[in-house]
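To fix ideas, we reproduce below one chain and its tokenised fold.
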Amino acid sequence: MKKTLLFLLFTMGVGLHAQTALTLDSCRAMALRNNKQLAIAAANRDKAYWEHEAARTNYLPKIEFMGGYMRTSKELSILSDDQKSSLNNLGTNIATPLGQQLNGFMGSAEFQQMAQAILQSNPDLAPLVQQLPGQMQQSLGQVAGALNGVGQQITDAFRTDSRNVTAGTVLFTQPLYMGGKIRAYDKITDYSKQLAEAKMSGASHELILEVDKAYWQIVSLASKKRLALQYRDMLQKLDDDILKMVAQGVATKANELTVSVKLNEAEMTLTKVEDGLSLSRMLLCQLCGLPIDSQPTLDAETLDDIPTDKADVTAAPEEAMANRSEIKQLQLASDIYQQKVNIERAAFLPSLALTGGYGFSNPALTHGFENRFRGMWNVGVVLKVPVWNWLEGRDKVRAAKAEALTYQYQLDEAREKIELQVNQQTFRVNEANRKYELCLRNLEKAQENLRAAQVGHKEGVVTTSDLLAAQTAWLSAMSDKTDAQVDIQLTRATLNNILGK
């Protein structure tokens, strides 16, 4: 349903264009709305605008988050296997030498003498002395077990359990001084935005000039078609008169053939004009975004006399310098490359930035190794100072300056060429005015000559050849007048384009 409605609306629009005579302004407006190159220029302008907006964010702080997880095949260990074994057998390693020393002491003659002396003095202690070695060994075993447990706890406390590691950080960065790079990028993108707008403006002016040329070409061919029809009608009437005169014996067969040849030439000329008119309408349709076969009618093509402004003009190079998009584009390009010099220089200047953030990990290390998430805040300042680069910075800056200088030269050359264009086109406009005045005087004489030849031919005092020559001269004069009028329109349109209007 929607497609059908759109098709009906499109068909109605085409019919309206075909029936309504288009003005020059309406053709320009349709061309500006439908031209694909202008649409591309508008898209580039929008692209430059958003790039400028993106560049302005470099003044603001950036906040980033980074995180990750890693599974390792082995666990990081602070203690070696020998150290772990020593700690796990801490009690055994201590009790075994003590037990050996105790057994050696109890088996010594000195201990036996001491024991005999004690038993002689206190016979009741005999059972206790006999049980003493076993109790001593039992106590050493209990101490060894307790120390082994303590060693195992120490080993477990040093375990990292780092096979599964999760870490992340939130990073805050605020540029404080980047050597002027951020400001240079800001200006470059701003100039690029203005450059895209200038290119779009230039494309609009060129499109308007193309539409004007196609419009006045149609008007010129339509006028010449009317002239060709009038000329053909004259020849047809003359051909009829000659046939009657031949029948009456007052004209020769040669006169009849001469007129027939001219009539055929007029028919061929009319066909060529009609073909050129059709092709010109197709070109205008393409420029205006209309269907190629719509064949629109122009309001000026039915006029017998094309309106012309015959006033002379004076050269105004200053106006062209102020308005021409080419000057703006080259000036902006020169400004862009001047900022690229600053960017190259900034790469070899100190940079300073404020940083801060929050980092966390699992296992955490703030209270030993813990299988839990813990983190900490941090803030600092980062300073980067290039020390020595073998004069790379100086060479790059000089290269950028040389490149910027080429655009300045191009700008100066463009100003000279535009000044020449303005003066030349001003001369062409004034020349077209003079040519039109000459054409008017020539037409006046050709019309009088044709009138006299027609009257003389009827009276029999002017030959057929002279009448044909008078008709041809009249056709040429009328065609020259139309060409002069259209030439005035086109030269003025070109001058307006050169002046950037």
The beta strands are 62-71, 164-177, 351-362, 374-384. Confidence is low (pLDDT under 50) at residues 1-18. DSSP finds 13 helices and four strands in the chain. Residues 181-248 form the longest helix (68 residues).
